[in-house]
Amino acid sequence: xxxxxxxxxxxxxxxxxxxxxxxxxxxxxxxxxxxxxxxxxxxxxxxxxxxxxxxxxxxxxxxxxxxxxxxxxxxxxxxxxxxxxxxxxxxxxxxxxxxxxxxxxxxxxxxxxxxxxxxxxxxxxxxxxxxxxxxxxxxxxxxxxxxxxxxxxxxxxxxxxxxxxxxxxxxxxxxxxxxxxxxxxxxxxxxxxxxxxxxxxxxxxxxxxxxxxxxxxxxxxxxxxxxxxxxxxxxxxxxxxxxxxxxxxxxxxxxxxxxxxxxxxxxxxxxxxxxxxxxxxxxxxxxxxxxxxx
Length: 294
Fold this sequence. Notes:
It is a single chain. This protein is of the alpha/beta class. The protein folds into 2 domains: 16-162, Rossmann fold; 177-290, Nitrogenase molybdenum iron protein domain (Rossmann fold), CATH 3.40.50.1980. The protein is built from 14 helices and 11 strands. The chain has helices at 16-19, 45-54, 91-97, 110-118, 132-145, 149-169, 192-199, 205-208, 219-225, 238-244, 252-255, 264-267, 274-285, 287-290, and strands at residues 40-42, 60-64, 84-86, 101-105, 123-126, 177-180, 186-187, 203-204, 214-215, 229-233, 259-262. The strands form 3 sheets. Strands 3-2-1-4-5 form a 5-stranded parallel beta sheet, sandwiched between helices. Strands 8-6-10-11 form a 4-stranded parallel beta sheet, with helices on both faces. Strand 4 (101-105), helix 4 and strand 5 (123-126) form a beta-alpha-beta unit. Helix 5 (132-145) packs antiparallel against helix 6 (149-169) and helix 6 packs parallel to helix 13 (274-285). The protein is globular and about 55 Å long. The two termini are 21 Å apart. The model is unreliable at 6-30 (pLDDT under 50).
């Protein structure tokens, strides 16, 4: 699993004529609808998680199927049952919902975004999700787009309070060097995983290695980097895979039982739950500052 969440729908197909039948709400010069959108569909898990916290249930008419996946979602059981689940992007079903706003993200397939935008449907694009500050702003922007500014501000106050508590607990703490590892891939500078590691009081080894984005550094370079901690997800059993690897299993971190497995739904969170992910990882890297790890 990489830092991109499992919400990336593929190319949409020839549905332009159908989408053109969707009504577009009038927008202000700033890019936000003048009238509150009443039927909102989400095509990414980040929006599923934010919208389920700030919208009245009746206004959320579509979400991704990942919203109900306990391995990936932090809002299992919190999304209204009336919202249609999209196992993949089906534009005929989207037309049938007649949304007046569709929420995508910067990670959504570019062809899908282009088709939606060119076909008359109003689209809000969540951006800046590769950093903790960017996630914060994305929540506020989405709140403005759906005319739920107060609810979004409340979510952000809680987000800020959690991060401030982590920062206070980590004052003066040493910063262990952390290597994220997933199927031969690691996270370079400017990624959501790097931001998470830094928030939790660590140093991102992928950035030290000069990796761009989520990319393979090579097992030999990973071994030579000698990280203090190897960070993996709990699903599938990534920790066992690291320990069984002929090179990575010989790392000092592996020998000292410093292969840390975080719940996948937190490790890849790109929503208000990024703050919970920061605290979770910080408690694993610095257990003396938090008591027993979660």
